[in-house]
Write a structure and sequence with these properties.
Elements (H helix, E strand, L loop, with lengths): L17 E3 L2 E3 L5 E4 L2 H4 L8 H11 L12 H12 L5 E5 L2 H18 L7 E5 L8 H7 L2 H4 L9 E4 L4 H7 L4 E6 L2 E2 L5 E2 L2 H14 L2 E5 L14 H4 L5 E4 L10 E5 L1 H4 L15 H14 L2 H24 L4 E7 L2 E6 L3 H10 L2 E2 L1 E3 L3 E4 L7 H17 L1
Parallel strand pairs: 3-15, 5-6, 5-7, 7-10, 10-11
Antiparallel strand pairs: 1-2, 2-3, 4-12, 8-9, 11-12, 13-14, 14-17, 16-17
The chain binds pyridoxal-5'-phosphate.
The site of pyridoxal-5'-phosphate has 15 residues, from α4.
Length: about 400
């Protein structure tokens, strides 16, 4: 039967019926080892019992009331995020791109409230990705995403990621803020150097700019700290979070300091579903799990192990593989051979991975993946490479 869906995702054929931990199962019962995890979404694997419990318990009590009323589950999750981060306040949405949008609106309103409405330009970085709303594609300015949607001045400027001179040369009197992913995801897993981030912070302070981080993909313990920037030594004023926060249930969060958050006074922003009891009950269970030191250190250890093993394969297969990038369990394998074709062959061997922009493969296993599951994935990769 022809699909009634819009064709923006093409027509993928592979379908899964159920998931458990690191595995997905087709209707025919075929088992796949999932190292894509919904593109860094299922942070605790599929159907983690504590998340199923949080969701079903809440589903039996109350699904939705709206932000016209107090939602204690969202208060609790906001408190947890504040306790574990630089932030003083949180706004909940339903996706990463909405979390980014909240940050953009906060920035503009902040300068507007200061009587500097002309300061509304935001600088984003080359190779970045911030989602698919008009503002998000305008920020990242990826031509493939903008074609037919935007033309002329969008209010965003772009600097070269990793290049302080480029940023410095892009700042004007109308610049309000800088947004960047401390570790880029879609563009290829690319970790910002500590010195670069310190330099960005310095330029922001010098020019009175707001610094916003997009940790939609690299956040929620993926790198071995709740947010990646904690390991890179620089705090932002605003941070967008989503994906892993709901462990598979849709939720986004925009975190901010009191100074910035106060720009969103009552009535200035909102979302019908943002902060709903189901999403925030699950998010709370995720944060409780991923913020213990033992959980975080395990992510760091497993990440170091996977990275070291992949590096061995790079040495063994220099015609096929180029290098390994990333931090914790946010790992990129840059290929010499076509990454899409390698992913296809790995999928035939029942290992799921995701491509990134620079002909690389993203390794995004569940954060509670086992050493044995990592070894199984490496065995499959080794087999596919040796048969290439
Ligand atoms: N920002 C980053 C860094 C992302 O990786 C993504 C999604 O891949 C987004 C924003 C957009 O998130 P969503 O697809 O939930 O809107």
């Amino acid at each position: 039967m022809t699909s009634a869906l819009m064709q923006n995702y093409g027509s993928p054929e592979l379908e899964f019926e159920r998931g458990e931990g690191s595995f997905l199962y087709t209707i025919e019962g075929e088992r796949y080892l999932d190292f894509a995890m919904g593109i860094a979404v299922n942070s605790l694997g599929h159907c983690h019992p504590k998340l199923v419990d949080a969701l079903t318990r809440q589903a039996n009590i109350l699904w939705h009331t709206s932000n016209l009323y107090r939602i204690s589950q969202s208060e609790t999750l906001a408190r947890q995020l504040v306790q574990h981060s630089f932030a003083d306040r949180v706004f909940f949405s339903n996706s990463g791109t909405e979390a980014v949008e909240c940050g953009f609106k906060m920035i503009r309103r902040y300068f507007h409230n200061r009587g500097q409405s002309q300061r509304k330009r935001i600088i984003a970085m080359s190779g970045s990705f911030h989602g698919r709303t008009l503002a998000a594609i305008a920020a990242a300015a990826n031509p493939a995403h903008c074609e037919g949607f935007l033309q002329g001045d969008t209010g965003f400027d772009q600097a070269k990621f990793g290049d302080l001179d480029s940023l410095s040369n892009t700042i004007t009197a109308d610049t309000a803020a800088v947004i960047l992913e401390p570790i880029q995801g879609e563009g290829g897993i690319c970790v910002a150097e500590k010195d670069y981030l310190l330099g960005v912070k310095g330029l922001c302070e010098q020019h009175d700019l707001v610094l916003m981080f997009d940790e939609v993909q690299c956040g929620i313990a993926r790198t071995g700290s709740l947010y990646a920037h904690e390991q890179l030594g620089v705090n932002p004023d605003i941070l967008a979070s989503a994906k892993g926060l709901g462990g598979g249930f849709p939720i986004g969060a925009c975190l901010a300091t009191e100074e910035l958050a106060s720009a969103l006074s009552p009535g200035t922003h909102g979302s019908t579903f943002g902060g709903n009891p189901l999403a925030t009950a699950v998010g709370s269970a995720v944060i409780t799990e991923v913020t213990t030191e033992s959980f975080l250190s395990n992510v760091r250890q497993l990440g170091s192990y996977l990275k070291a093993e992949l590096e061995k394969l790079v040495t063994q297969y220099p015609q096929h593989l180029n290098r390994v990038t990333g931090l914790g369990l946010f790992i990129g394998l840059v290929c010499e051979i076509d990454a899409a074709e390698l992913i296809e062959r790995l999928q035939q061997e029942k290992l799921l991975l995701v491509k990134a922009g620079d002909n690389s493969i993203r390794w995004l296993p569940a954060l509670n993946v086992s050493r044995e599951e990592i070894d199984s994935a490496l065995t499959i990769l080794t087999k596919v490479l040796s048969d290439w």
